[in-house]
Write a structure and sequence with these properties.
By secondary structure, this protein is mainly beta. It is built from three helices and 46 strands. Strands 1, 2, 3, 4, 5, 6 and 7 form a seven-stranded antiparallel sheet that branches. Strands 8, 10, 11, 42, 44 and 46 form a six-stranded antiparallel sheet that branches. Strands 9, 40, 41, 43 and 45 form a five-stranded antiparallel sheet that branches.
Length: about 675
């Protein structure tokens, strides 16, 4: 019995120990269960307040992104309703047992547009809002949410039409064409226009007095024009030509004149002009172009009196030697000095088989177009100007020669002859001495009822023949010089007739033909040319700058906008070609974008990078942001873009089809 009583006591002690351990835990479980249910109720209510704040922020954004500029970083706000619309008020708010607060902070992005915690560029089109809701009973707790808010009401500005691009600055070896609505391509080294689509859109020039202009010669920046059909005009007018960047048209102004002679031909150098006159004591007049007197007249520097009596029909210079044709004679004369009477170098000269009409010197040979029907071209060895010698004559199945043009290498002669109803009037002749086919006619063309008076060969290649009657300005495609007949590719009817033509490829890359017409009120006309949209011989690199845009006119009512993305459609014909973009944005100066300073940048915000294509058909990227108040600015009011086109093959050009800018008010 003693043993049983001891065992009972031990069991009782164990039961009491278990009870001491178990009952507190049981009571705690009941307590926590009761309080946890209350906490869950509070959390649900807090979540509702959190979601309400998120929706309030999105609603505020819908009213306009500029509203967010009012809310400073690291300042406490809370949602409020004003006039039935959500807004934010300063400070925290208490709703029943809950405290709600919103705090803003900036967002940074790397050059690829990814959000980063540090080291990026602050994105003014993105804000981070942290919302917190807290309560103290039954337990102190808080919940939070981070909302990334962005401008989503993008406005897209697009340049895609010909006129869009023409409003820009296609001056640096680029040009605007219209293949499919409007594109930018590399400019051609042979001009920006199209020889085969000539037009008289450039303002014509009225030469002094009312004479009929008959002679013309052009160099970079200047045109020499003379009167030959009557004596009512000036003997010579020097016309200065500006060489503006495309698409501005050149401006022609008469800088001085010279009187006293009837001029049949004129040849121009930078400082002197040479007139072929009908005066047999001064067949060639030499005019100094350095200055004019008080009446705007140039002074005579010197002259050449050819042996015998006669007129000069053509004149040309080569170095220190001048050459003249008149009647059936050709003479050379000394130009080591330009003053006084210039001496003849070959007193006998040479006798031509017909009247000399036009003369060109290339290398050691002179080429003369004559009226002889069996020798329209006479080739003269001028390697020794004191001993001129005829070395060849070329007869064409045509009437007498009228005008001649020689290519730079002297291997081709382009000849225009008198109009004939039974024969052609334009010929390409092989003049490569010693080569197979020397003196052979390669191709020919019929000018119809037009009687030729002059011709030039321009880029393309194209030949332009001018004259009287019919279509007075005709363009011939001589790409395939053996075509029979050579194809016409364009022309203009100029009813007053065209008495002469010359051409210049200007330093800007633009090409012009200058024609002298019978129109007494606007004798000198300027036609811009080039190889056209399908031309070749492109510049290897060029730059196009868009016009300046005022973003407040695009996003009406905005004082400035954020520029978000730039995108472009391009065509790259080979791995050697590329199109890259840069973007510039700036604050207005004096309320205008015209005076702003534009700094072009790439995706990293510096001038050293550009937006490039990864697939050869498109370019896209986020525009960097900057708010330091100098140079490139974003957000800003004013913007433009710049495209650089590059090719490694002069026969292929990359194409910029369109450019779009995404911006947000």
């Amino acid at each position: 019995m003693k043993l049983q009583r001891g065992q009972t006591i031990i069991e009782l002690l164990l039961a009491m120990g278990f009870a001491l351990i178990f009952f507190p835990a049981l009571f705690t479980m009941f307590f926590v269960s009761r309080e946890g249910k209350a906490q869950q109720i509070e959390r649900t209510r807090a979540t509702t307040l959190l979601v309400e704040a998120q929706e309030a922020l999105r609603s505020i954004r819908e009213t306009g992104w500029s509203q967010f500029a009012l809310y400073a970083n690291n300042t406490v706000y809370h949602p409020a309703v004003v006039n039935a619309r959500w807004t934010l008020a300063n400070g925290t708010e208490t709703i029943d047992r809950f405290t709600r607060v919103i705090e803003f902070s900036p967002v940074q992005r790397d050059i690829s547009g990814n959000i980063v915690s540090s080291g990026g560029i602050t994105d003014p089109s993105t804000r981070r809002a942290t919302i917190r809701v807290s309560w103290t009973t039954p337990l102190p707790t808080s919940i939070s949410s981070v909302v990334i808010l962005t401008r989503h009401n993008n406005i897209i500005h697009v340049d895609t039409t010909e006129q869009n691009f023409l409003n820009g600055d296609a001056t640096q070896h680029t040009r605007v064409i219209n293949l499919a609505g409007g594109e930018v391509v590399l400019g051609s080294t042979g001009g920006y226009g199209d020889w085969c689509q000539p037009s008289l859109t450039i303002t014509a020039v009225d030469l002094p007095k009312s004479g009929v202009a008959n002679a013309i010669s052009a160099i970079q920046g200047a045109i020499a024009a003379g009167t030959g059909d009557n004596a009512s005009g000036v003997s010579y007018a020097n016309v200065l030509i500006t060489d503006p960047e495309f698409p501005t048209n050149p401006i022609a102004t008469t800088s001085g004149t010279f009187d006293g002679y009837k001029t049949n031909d004129v040849f121009t150098e930078a400082e002197y002009a040479y007139l072929a006159t009908d005066t047999n004591t001064k067949e060639v007049e030499i005019i100094a172009l350095g200055a004019v007197d008080g009446s705007g007249k140039f002074a005579e520097a010197g002259y050449f009196n050819a042996p015998g009596n006669g007129n000069a029909e053509g004149v040309v210079t080569a170095g220190s030697v001048g050459y003249m044709v008149g009647g059936t004679k050709m003479y050379s004369f000394d130009l080591s000095s330009k003053t006084g009477s210039r001496s003849v170098l070959d007193a006998d000269g040479i006798t031509l088989p017909g009247t000399g009409k036009s003369i060109v010197v290339s290398g050691g040979r002179a080429f003369v177009a004559t009226s002889a029907t069996n020798a329209q071209v006479v080739i003269v060895d001028v390697s020794n100007p004191s001993d001129l010698r005829i070395v060849d004559q070329i007869g064409l199945s045509a009437s007498g020669g009228k005008a001649i043009y020689i290519n730079a290498s002297g291997t081709r002669a382009y000849v225009a002859t008198e109009q004939s109803s039974a024969q052609r009037e334009f010929f390409i002749v092989n003049t490569e001495s010693g080569a197979a086919g020397y003196k052979q006619v390669l191709g020919s063309y019929d000018t119809g009822s037009m009687n030729p008076k002059g011709l030039v060969v321009v880029s393309g290649p194209r030949a332009i023949i001018v004259g009287l009657g019919g279509e007075e300005y005709q363009v011939v495609d001589i790409t395939s010089e053996t075509a029979n007949p050579l194809p016409r590719c364009g022309g203009i009817e100029i009813n007053s007739g065209v008495n002469g033509i010359d051409t210049v490829l200007a330093s800007s890359g633009r090409a012009y033909s200058y024609i002298i017409t019978g129109d007494a009120s606007s004798e000198l006309k300027i036609i811009e040319g080039g190889p056209g949209a399908n031309g070749r011989d492109y510049f290897l690199t060029g730059v196009f700058e868009s016009q300046i845009f005022d973003a407040t006119l695009i996003a009406t009512g905005s004082s400035e906008v954020a520029f978000n993305r730039i995108e472009a459609s391009i065509s790259v014909p080979s791995a050697q070609s590329s199109v890259t973009l840069q973007f510039a944005a700036a604050d207005a100066v004096g309320g205008s974008c015209a005076g702003a300073s534009y700094i072009y940048v790439g995706p990293d915000g510096t001038a050293g990078t550009s937006y490039v294509s990864s697939d050869g058909v498109s370019i896209s990227g986020a525009l960097p942001f900057s708010g330091d108040g100098t140079g490139y600015e974003n957000p800003a009011r004013c913007f433009r873009y710049r495209a650089q086109l590059t090719t490694g093959d002069a026969t292929l050009t990359p194409i910029l089809n369109d450019v779009s800018i995404a911006l947000s008010p």
